[in-house]
UniProtKB/TrEMBL annotation, chain A:
Its main location: membrane. The chain crosses the membrane at residues 24-46, 58-78, 90-110, 165-186, 198-219. It is a multi-pass membrane protein. This is ABC transporter permease. One of its GO terms (cellular component) is ATP-binding cassette (ABC) transporter complex. GO terms for biological process: amino acid transport. Residues 18-220 form the ABC transmembrane type-1 domain. The lineage of its organism: Bacteria, Pseudomonadati, Pseudomonadota, Alphaproteobacteria, Hyphomicrobiales. The keyword DNA repair does not apply.
UniProtKB/TrEMBL annotation, chain B:
Keywords: ATP-binding, Nucleotide-binding, Transport. Belongs to the ABC transporter superfamily. This is ABC transporter ATP-binding protein. It comes from Ancylobacter dichloromethanicus. It holds the Pfam family ABC_tran. It comes from the Bacteria. Coiled coil: none annotated. CDD domains: ABC_HisP_GlnQ. The keyword NAD does not apply.
Length: 252, 255
């Protein structure tokens, strides 16, 4: 008898399939993260605009897509939009006709809504005096944004961004409900074939855990590099000596 | 900062001409029609109790505050709401703040390099050379590669002065530059400011450092409740104040 709830032989056999599922999960994480972030910038600017005509639609977008449960959003995009005749015959059917397209749209909209708020909070955290000092130096608004506000906002918002990315990765598991064979779907199908509830699910959990921790380590390194201006002189010197240290001066 | 040769034809024109300046914060009248003219190369100290409008006055000059009435002309450029005009004036005017406001993510050197690189298109090497020259001028060349969080308050304020100088402004505004400093660091900052005063740069300085005002100022201005109450050469200002309010103020701060 095996005291462990998992069957090592099955786990070993499942690895290739799980790896394939993992690739799908990574793909469905990276692409919406990029698209969502790209969407979040203009929406955030609109949200922070003094003009109601811009701020109100942006705020509505955030309220709607942050409020809508991801699963319902995915159903609406996948099953709901397909009901629209014009869309089925239009050029966008390339996107909305495939479960991948729908998943990417739903995940991107969800991520964008969250990122608008992360971005806004980070930009608002930049001390006003520092922005004023840049203005007094005659730096243009665009350059102040690129070289002063954004570099500081990234530092203030890094933890919130990391939280959002980590919960987003795990949130992608719901795409299995629209026929996409991501990591979760692979684990599920192994379960259905073998009636072993523990081995595939625990293996999938380990994969998610590993993925999240790769992200965590990435963020930790990024944060350390960004935070180098707050580091102790001695710590920095020691790190510069270390073979794996992150050193060198680079303008952010 | 040497007097610029091409400004000679404009020499008769004042560096800063302020007339009828009004600034409101909601219902509060922070400045109620202030007139002040600063000649080129003149060193003017503004003092007064807190809330008297002295910071607001100098913040209007480089458009950090929008004016609600009156005119400001800086080196012949009239301040308007137009963004281009505001940028032109800001190129002429450097500013040093009470709380330094250095860029925390950049080293002292990079703090000084940023504006010349972005505004004047200097290369990294050119900007670094310029920045180093000005850091030397404030005696901080050896700290150039440190981040602001590693510098003392006095050092940070001197970096802020060097950062303003790197844009080679003809007018420098100081907004209580030593008020946020520990007492032992005040003199290193005042020393740098006195050095600057020996050059041709126009200085407008909000400060309560009366020793500095006596040594450096060509003229002192006393403000109270949004208006200029008294102004004069630094000697008569301190030794023979005309108004009761200035006498009261000086008695309080000189102990």
């Amino acid at each position: 008898m095996n005291a462990l709830p998992i069957d090592p032989a099955l786990a070993w056999e499942s690895l290739p399939a799980l790896f394939q599922g993992l690739q799908v999960t990574v793909f469905l994480t990276v692409l919406p993260l990029l698209i969502g972030l790209a969407l979040a910038f203009p929406i955030c600017f609109a949200r922070m605009s003094a003009r109601r005509g811009l701020a109100l639609p942006a705020e509505t977008f955030v309220v709607f897509f942050r409020g809508a449960p991801l699963l319902i959003l995915l159903y609406l995009v996948y099953y709901g939009l397909g009901q629209i005749e014009a869309l089925r015959n239009g050029p966008f059917w390339i996107v909305f006709g495939s479960p991948f397209g729908c998943a990417i749209v739903a995940l991107s909209l969800n991520h964008a809504a969250y990122m608008v708020e992360v971005l806004r909070g980070s930009l608002l955290a930049v001390p006003h005096g520092i922005v004023e000092a840049s203005e007094a130096l005659g730096i243009t608004r665009r350059n102040i944004f690129l070289w002063v506000r954004m570099p500081l906002a990234i530092r203030y918002g890094l933890k919130a961004y990391q939280n959002e990315v980590v919960s987003f990765i795990k949130g992608t598991a719901i795409v299995s409900v629209v026929t996409i064979t991501d990591l979760m779907a692979v684990a599920n199908s192994i379960f259905e074939q073998t009636y072993d509830p523990f081995t595939p699910i625990l293996c999938a959990a380990a994969f998610y855990w590993a993925l999240v921790n790769v992200v965590r380590i990435g963020f930790a390194l990024w944060g350390r590099w960004l935070g180098r201006h707050n580091e102790d002189e001695a710590v920095r010197a020691a790190r510069a000596q270390a073979p794996l240290g992150i050193s060198g001066e680079v303008l952010p | 900062m040497n007097p610029l040769p091409h400004s000679l034809d404009l020499a008769a024109e004042p560096a800063i001409a302020i007339s009828g300046l009004v600034k409101l914060f909601g219902d509060h009248r922070a400045l109620g029609g202030v007139d002040l003219t600063v000649r080129r190369g003149e060193k003017v100290v503004i003092c007064g109790p807190s809330g008297s409008g002295k910071s607001t006055l100098i913040r209007c000059i480089n458009a950090l505050e929008r004016l609600d009435g009156g005119r400001i002309v800086v080196n012949g450029i009239e301040l308007t709401a137009d963004e281009g005009t505001v940028q032109d004036i800001r190129q002429e005017v450097g500013m040093v703040f009470q709380h330094f406001n250095l860029f925390p993510h950049l080293t002292a050197l990079e703090n000084c390099m940023l504006a010349p690189q972005l505004n004047r298109g200097l290369s990294r090497a050119q900007a670094a050379k310029l920045a180093m020259a000005h850091l030397e001028r404030v005696h901080l060349a050896d700290q150039a590669h440190k981040y602001p969080s590693r510098l003392s308050g006095g050092q940070q304020q001197r970096v802020a002065i060097a950062r303003a100088l790197c844009m080679e402004p003809r007018i420098l505004l100081f907004d209580e530059p030593t008020s946020a400093l520990d007492p032992e660091m005040v003199n290193e900052v005042l020393g740098v400011m006195e050095d600057l005063a020996t050059g041709g740069v126009t200085m407008l300085c909000v400060t309560h450092e009366m020793g500095f005002a006596r040594r450096v100022a060509d003229r002192c201005v006393f403000m109270d409740r949004g208006a200029i109450v008294e102004e004069g050469g630094s000697r008569e200002f301190f030794d023979a104040p005309a108004s009761e309010r200035l006498r009261g103020f000086l008695a309080q701060i000189l102990h």
